Amino acid sequence: MKAVTVSDRDAGVSGLSLTELPYPVVSENDVVVRVHAAGFTRGELDWPDTWTERSGRDRTPSVPGHELSGVVVELGYGTTRFTIGQRVFGLADWARNGSLAEYAAVETRHLAPLPYDVDHTLAAALPISGLSAWQGLFEHAQLVAGQTVLIHGAAGGVGSIAVQLAREVGARVIGTGRAADRDRALELGTHTFLDLDDDKLEDAGEVDVVFDVIGGEIMERSIALVRAGGTLVTLAEPPKTQPRDGRALYFLVEPDSARLADLAARVRTGRLKPVVGRVVPLADAPSAFNQKKRTTGKTIVRVTED
Hints:
It is an enzyme of class 1 (oxidoreductase). This is Alcohol dehydrogenase, zinc-binding protein. Pfam families: ADH_N (PF08240), ADH_zinc_N_2 (PF13602). It is a single chain. The protein is 21% helix and 27% strand. By secondary structure, the chain is an alpha/beta fold. The protein has two domains: 171 residues, Medium-chain alcohol dehydrogenases, catalytic domain (Quinone Oxidoreductase, Chain A, domain 1, Alpha-Beta Complex), CATH 3.90.180.10; 109 residues, NAD(P)-binding Rossmann-like Domain (Rossmann fold, 3-Layer(aba) Sandwich). Helix 2 packs across helix 3.
């Protein structure tokens, strides 16, 4: 099968290439998915799990990418949740070969059924972005109606979903980004938009929740905006300081098949619209990793046509 692989840690994204790999071995409670569309995170070549198995043993050449949507083509021993031919989407395991391949072996607990009328491209934009937004806003920050949330990167893959979920629950949403993101962020539902280049972040005032995907100086300045009892949640890096009367925490997204199914239902009914940016073929995935120009939304790799 064709797959994007990487073997040299020092080479970084320049070490990515399209190669031939053996068809994946299916284990107990696995399925093999014929991948139709896949997503990736540009920083994942820095993750330890990209290079080693859970035991610490080297697993190169490894296949990056951890978001996928496709069709089940093989069942592992003991698998009962899915059937051959069923459409599914979800997260490829962190410490195993990922989704930038024609086929991927995935634990069933990391997958959810995909409704027949939800496109694979949209589905592949959901797993990390959708689960990160939900878990950050509602499980970690416990956002509720009437509160104010500041969402950094409001037009990006994660931020755009966070904006929509926060609006749906009845929160007041302040979004940030660059000037080119303003119209999209307002269209998604932000009440106020701050341009990080030209506007003062402090103009946001005190907020109940900060949802951060940027880190660095922006995150640290945002900590001062958290009002008493409030929370800053970040996917970028552990905060160096804490709000005076609140909390700041770093979290990693966790697989959740039930929540994935809920997110897919929201997409199906139009309550949630993932923002897809570029769609590239599998052969162009290495260059998409190295893309310098900012794009709005999530870059998706189209692996197999429907």
